[in-house]
Amino acid sequence: MLNETEAQINEAEFAELGRFLLDALNVHPQAELVISFIDPDAMAELHERFLEELGPTDVMSFPMDELRPGTEDQPSSPGILGDVVICPEVAAEQAREMGHSLEDELLVLATHGILHLLGFDHADRDERAAMFSLQRKLVLSFIASR
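Above: the chain sequence. Below: its structure as tokens.
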């Protein structure tokens, strides 16, 4: 985990979240995952370079080895899952709009980013429903497990 911002980030919590999610989705325990927190200018640069959209966004995912969820009997192969990059400043605004804490918003965004690394998407209505349902279930399960 990397925090390149002034935001107070509980590094241990995000390490636990990563492990929890990868275990829940039967991803090999040796899969590598990086979660980074960056400022709005750095996020805007990534957003424009990779998605050709102006301004910062909340979360971006950069998959590497295209790992996919496994099963209990057959976890995914080891490899580099990729990077999730989050902008706490954008997340703080979204948290205010949604009426919940920044911590909760960051957990949701990290989960969302990890699901993208594992091949989940929300390009159409069915994909969106499946991904957001799984995201909600995973975040609530993680919070309940602490």
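The chain has five helices and four strands.
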